[in-house]
């Protein structure tokens, strides 16, 4: 019977990243998943590392996203050395197109904000976009150019985290469902699983959209909900795009060997992992409107995944206030791949009692939800 110091529930990109970082620091970790590691939201993602396109620029989430993004360059080499897996980090930039005057105004303001804070993101007029990406149908409104943006292969990243953790000495128990937490005298002492009880000093719940269901059994209410997302991919004969193309409601990410990944739909409160025709039809129509040559490309496949979202749109990365040694890392919604690298380091710092940024501590705390919901 294994007796880890830290049990992590969920071997998606979040649980995997935490397991990797903790095991690298010498912790005795057990990573568990009810299925195969990395097969849920983390496999469905497009893999964009898009901190500057959407987030509120003065927020703790934005500073955390930038912090996480900066880790990726070193992480790429580190994971490659440790596991032989290439996470396919590409940094060829992103264009966020304005599709109407309101979006144009918003993106221009964003560009100005970046200029004032000396960040690498610029407003591009119609002609400049056309020169950069001739295959795009721009809509004539210009857009924001973010040269440092990029993407990774999310599946390779999730697998590399898990394999990296295992090569650092972590135990992986896949196909093992965690039924409930073992709670004794106001402290979490392990988990009850389909393979029997596993005792440990700390438990980290990183079960993505399914975290809430598990925590509810111990009377913990997170206020999260699932948001289904669908994507599809195609192969084009020639390279249609260099940079990622992003608009409200549709993005196109150029991957390796002429492959283009197109996403994503959003259906709140759905755990349905089937791809539906209506989702594909609306995505295809939007994508072809942005990149008409897409109609000639060969369809590869489509898929769906369930994003974990919170009521206030911010992830939980926190210890539980009243139940000692229970930790939560979920609710990364549309940015779990981007935030994964930072989450691993941040959660490991929290567990080790290291000093972390006060604004992150407050913002990502579970207590914000408790006071918001008036519980406890
Ligand atoms: P998951 O990957 O869902 O992993 C949770 C794991 O926990 C699962 O493997 C599950 O089996 C396991 N689990 C749950 N409960 C239990 C239990 N009781 N016992 C044992 N195991 C359990 N993010 C980006 O940054 N960039 C993108 O471009 C991007 N695109 C996306 C596109 C789509 C279509 C979708 C769906 C998501 C996208 N995301 C993107 C978001 C990102 O994928 C998620 O935020 C991230 O994968 C969440 O990771 P996770 O580990 O929390 O959850």
From TrEMBL:
<protein>
    <recommendedName>
        <fullName>glycine oxidase</fullName>
        <ecNumber>1.4.3.19</ecNumber>
    </recommendedName>
</protein>
<feature type="domain" description="FAD dependent oxidoreductase">
    <location>
        <begin position="5"/>
        <end position="350"/>
    </location>
</feature>
<dbReference type="InterPro" id="IPR036188">
    <property type="entry name" value="FAD/NAD-bd_sf"/>
</dbReference>
<dbReference type="InterPro" id="IPR012727">
    <property type="entry name" value="Gly_oxidase_ThiO"/>
</dbReference>
<dbReference type="GO" id="GO:0005737">
    <property type="term" value="C:cytoplasm"/>
</dbReference>
<dbReference type="GO" id="GO:0043799">
    <property type="term" value="F:glycine oxidase activity"/>
</dbReference>
<dbReference type="GO" id="GO:0050660">
    <property type="term" value="F:flavin adenine dinucleotide binding"/>
</dbReference>
<comment type="pathway">
    <text>Cofactor biosynthesis; thiamine diphosphate biosynthesis.</text>
</comment>
<dbReference type="Pfam" id="PF01266">
    <property type="entry name" value="DAO"/>
</dbReference>
<dbReference type="GO" id="GO:0009228">
    <property type="term" value="P:thiamine biosynthetic process"/>
</dbReference>
<keyword id="KW-0560">Oxidoreductase</keyword>
<keyword id="KW-0784">Thiamine biosynthesis</keyword>
<dbReference type="GO" id="GO:0009229">
    <property type="term" value="P:thiamine diphosphate biosynthetic process"/>
</dbReference>
<dbReference type="InterPro" id="IPR006076">
    <property type="entry name" value="FAD-dep_OxRdtase"/>
</dbReference>
């Amino acid at each position: 019977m294994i007796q880890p110091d830290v049990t992590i529930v969920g071997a998606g990109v979040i649980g995997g990243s935490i397991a990797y970082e903790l095991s690298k620091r010498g912790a005795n970790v057990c990573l568990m998943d009810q299925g195969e590691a990395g097969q849920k939201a983390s496999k469905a993602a497009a893999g964009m590392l898009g901190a500057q396109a959407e987030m509120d620029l003065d927020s703790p989430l934005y500073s955390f996203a930038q912090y996480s993004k900066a880790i990726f360059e070193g992480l790429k080499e580190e994971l490659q050395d440790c596991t032989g897996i290439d996470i396919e980090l590409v940094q060829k930039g992103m264009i966020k197109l304005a599709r109407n005057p309101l979006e144009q105004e918003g993106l221009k303001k964003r560009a100005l904000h970046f200029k004032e804070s000396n960040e690498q993101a610029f407003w591009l007029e119609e002609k400049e976009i056309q020169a950069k990406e001739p295959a795009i149908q721009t809509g004539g409104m210009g857009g924001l150019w973010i040269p440092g943006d990029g993407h990774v292969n999310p599946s390779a990243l999730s697998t590399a985290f898990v394999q990296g953790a295992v090569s650092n000495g972590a135990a992986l128990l896949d196909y093992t469902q965690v039924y409930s937490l073992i709670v004794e005298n106001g402290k979490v002492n392990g988990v009850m699983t389909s393979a029997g009880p596993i005792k440990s000093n700390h438990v980290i719940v990183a079960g993505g959209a399914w975290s809430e269901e598990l925590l509810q059994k111990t009377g913990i209410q997170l206020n999260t909900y699932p948001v289904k997302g669908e994507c599809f991919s195609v192969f084009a004969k020639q390279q249609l795009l260099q940079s990622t193309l992003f608009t409200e409601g549709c993005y196109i990410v150029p991957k390796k060997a002429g492959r283009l990944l197109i996403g994503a739909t959003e259906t709140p409160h759905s755990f349905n992992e089937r791809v539906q025709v209506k989702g594909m039809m609306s995505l295809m129509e939007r994508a072809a409107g942005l990149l008409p040559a897409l109609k000639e490309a060969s369809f590869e496949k489509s898929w769906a995944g369930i994003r974990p979202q919170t009521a206030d749109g911010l992830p939980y990365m926190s210890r539980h206030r009243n139940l000692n040694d229970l930790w939560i890392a979920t609710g990364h919604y549309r940015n779990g791949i981007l935030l994964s690298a930072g989450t691993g380091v941040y959660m490991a710092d929290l567990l080790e009692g290291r000093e972390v940024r006060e604004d992150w501590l407050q913002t990502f705390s579970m207590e914000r939800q408790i006071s918001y919901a008036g519980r406890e």
